[in-house]
Amino acid sequence: MVDFDIIIVGAGISGINFAYRLQERHPDLSYCILENRHEIGGTWSLFQYPGIRSDSDLYTFGFAWRPWTGKNSIVHGSLIRDYIEDSAAEKGIDSKIRFCHRVNKMKWSSSSNLWTFDITVNFVDRLSLTSHFVFLGTGYYDYQKPLEANIPEVSNFQGQVVHPQFWPADLDYADKRVVVIGSGATAITLLPSLAKKAAQVTMLQRSPTYIASLPTEGGFEAFAFNFLPRFLANKLIRLKWMLFSFFMVSFCRLFPRAAKAFLLRKTARLLPPGMSLEPDFIPSYNPWDQRLCLCPDGDFFNAIRSGNGSVKTGKIENITASAIRLTSGDELHPDIIVTATGLKLCTGGGIDITIDGKPYDMRDHFAWRTAMVEGLPNAVLSWGYVDASWTLGADSTAQLACRLLEKVKEGGISVIVPRMTAEERNRLEERPFLRLQATYVKEGGSAFPKSASTAPWQPRSYFWKDMAISRWGDIETGLEWLK
Q: What are phi and psi of 338, to 5 degrees?
C-alpha cells in the first residue's frame, strides 16, 4: 500500500510554496514534507552568519498567496524564517512536515510505479516510505558540505578560519582584525555587519564586483500602504518590484556599457571623498554576467567611510601562520579569516537515485521546462531564478507541476517521464543551466542537469514567460505519458 500520493523533500521556500499550491488545486491528494533539519526555513535556518539577509526584495521573494507586508524590502534572515514558518502555520502546512527526516536514497520501481524513500530519522533510526510522485525542493547547493575554497596554504594560518555556511555561534570577533575572502553577496553582507564590533574588516577580492545601494523603505511602498486598500497595495508593490527587476536585468544585458557607466557613477558617489573607483570598484565583466550585489541603505559603503571597513584587490600568494601575502607584495595580518568564496553546488540534495535498480545521475540528462529531468519518472525539481527572486521561479514550477497532476487525474495516467530520441539528443545545442559567470558557478556548474537552445529543454527565461508556459504552454512535447 502506498503511503502518500506525493512526497515533498525540503521545507524551505520551494517546499512550502508547492505544498500550498497542492492544497489549493489538488486537495484530494495526500502528501507529506520530509525535512532534514529541525525546523522550517531551509537556507534561512541553516545560515546564521552576522547580518544574513535576503539578496532579493521581500515583496517578490515572499509568497504570492501570502504577501510580505513589512516596510523594509530587504530584511534579516531570521525574519524571513519567521515569515516562512508563519505562512506554513496559517495554511496548515506545518502539520504535514516531518522534521529530522533525511532522505538518503530514492528508488523507482517500474513494476509498481512507485518511489521508495530510504530515510534516516533523528540521525539514528531508519524509515521507508512510498509515493507516486516526488517534488524536490532541495535548493541548489550542498547543505552538508561547504565549498572547498582554493586558497593557497590556508591551513598554515594559526588564527580561526570560518566558512559562513557553518558560522560558530560563539565566535568572538570584537576588536579583532577580520579578512573576508570573497566579493559576492555574502561578503558584501558580512563587511558592514562585522565592522560594528571588529577593529578592522577587510574584504579581500581577486576582482571587483558591482554593488548597488537600495533603500530599505521606498516612497512608493509607504504611499501604497498608507493610502490604498491593503490587497491593492500588496499587488501594486509586488508588481513594481517584478517590473523593476525585469527592466534592470534587461537593461544591463541589452546595454551593458550604459549600465556599467550608470552603476559606477552611483558607486563613486557612495565612496569616501577622494577615494577612486580604481582598482577596487571597477569590475572586468559586464553587469549581470555575475549576480548584482545589493546593500540596503548603502551600509557597505558606510562601513568603508567609517574607517572600520576596507576593500583590497589582489591575488593570494600564500598564507603563513599570521599573515596573508599577496602577489603584489602586500600583507594582511588578520586574527580571523572568513572564506566567503561561494557554495558547493548540488542538485536534488545529493540524494542517491536508482531506477529499477540502476544508478541515475541527473547531471547526465537534460532538464524539461527546468522542472523535470529526462528519464526521471514522476519527479519535479524546483528551480528559481539567479537574476530575480527565487520564489518566482519556484512558483512557476509548482503551478506547472499542479497542471501535470491535473492531466494525470483526467487521463488515468500512472507515469510521466521526459524522453528524447538519440537523434533529438544529437541535434541539441547545449546551453549553461545558470546564466552566471561567478567562479563557484563555473567550477560547479556540472552539478546541474543539462540545458539546450531549443524548447522544451531550454534553461529558465523570465517570470512572465515561464508562468505562461506553466499555465497554458505545451506539456506534450518531450513528455511520455503512461497509463
A: -115, 125
Three-class DSSP category at 144 = coil
> Could you give the strand order of the β-sheet that contains 336-339, starting from the edge strand earlier in sequence?
160-162, 336-339, 177-181, 200-205, 309-313
> Facing residues of 204 across strands?
181, 312
Residue 460 dihedral angles phi and psi, to the nearest 5°: -55, 145
Domains of the chain: 4-144+344-482 (3.50.50.60), 154-339 (3.50.50.60)
The answer, yes or no, to whether residue 125 has pLDDT greater than 70, is yes
- Residues forming a β-bridge with 416: 481
Task: Please give the Cα distance from 469 to 407 (Å, whole number).
Answer: 15
**Cα distances (Å, whole numbers) of residue 221 to 218, 335, 375:** 5, 42, 46
The answer to whether residues 100 and 432 touch, using CB atoms and an 8 Å cutoff, is: no
Which grid cell is 52? 544574513
End-to-end CA distance of the chain: 19
* DSSP bridge pairs for 282: none
* CA pseudo-torsion sign 383, 352, 43, 45: positive
C-alpha cell at 208: 571587483
* 430 has pLDDT over 90: no
Do 190 and 338 contact (CB within 8 A), yes or no?
yes
* Structure letter (DSSP) for residue 163: -
- DSSP, collapsed to helix, strand or coil, labels residue 370 as coil
Q: Which three cell numbers stand for residue 161?
A: 578560519
What cell was used for 438? 561567478
The radius of gyration computed from the CA coordinates of the chain, to the nearest angstrom, equals 23
Helices (H), ranges, 327-447? 390-411, 422-427, 439-444
* d(C-alpha 440, C-alpha 303), whole Å: 27
Share of the chain above pLDDT 70, in %: 98
More confident site: 472 or 290 = 472
Task: Tally helices (H) and strands (E) across the chain.
Answer: 13, 25
> By the 8 A CB rule, do 477 and 456 touch?
yes
| Exposed/middle/buried for residue 403 (C-beta within 10 Å: 0-12, 13-18, 19+) | middle
CA distance 248 to 60: 15
